[in-house]
Amino acid sequence: MPMVKRSAASNLGKFAATVEAAHSKADIMSIFEDLTQDDQDSVRLLAVKGCAALGKLLEPQDCDKSWRVRYMVANQLYELCEAVGPEPTRSDLVPAYVRLLRDNEAEVRIAGAGKVTKFCWILNLKLAIPPYPSHVSSIFQKF
């Protein structure tokens, strides 16, 4: 069963791109939420990796409503950083993490704040500080 779930998580974005828009929003996002809450770390990680493909299918007004997706990304960010490596982490995930820490939903901010220590451990502090504006760098200077 975990092998099937991993395959589903890996291909959910591709599948969603072929499904009618009416089904994408309701059914696909429900499947995505289920996969991001799976017992297997590998399934959750693969689901989060595919969230960018799902995000492209959403309209701007839908993105504000999907705070649970941002919450799951905040919960899985450490594992995602481990999977993609230092350069994509520095260039893409640090700014995304800062946005999660400033999210409108308290649950998203709490989930992100709960991962600060793990997130900082995976980064070399020198990778995190130089290329970012002071408001981003100040977060990491405390560690």
Automatic annotation (TrEMBL):
Keyword Repeat assigned: yes
Keywords: Repeat
Protein's UniProt name: Phosphatase PP2A regulatory subunit A/Splicing factor 3B subunit 1-like HEAT repeat domain-containing protein
Domain Phosphatase PP2A regulatory subunit A/Splicing factor 3B subunit 1-like HEAT repeat: 88-124
Family: Belongs to the phosphatase 2A regulatory subunit A family.
Ranges: HEAT repeats: 28-66, 93-128
Pfam families with a match to the protein in the record: PPP2R1A-like_HEAT
Gene3D superfamilies assigned to the protein according to its UniProt record, in alphabetical order: Leucine-rich Repeat Variant
Repeat listed as a keyword: yes
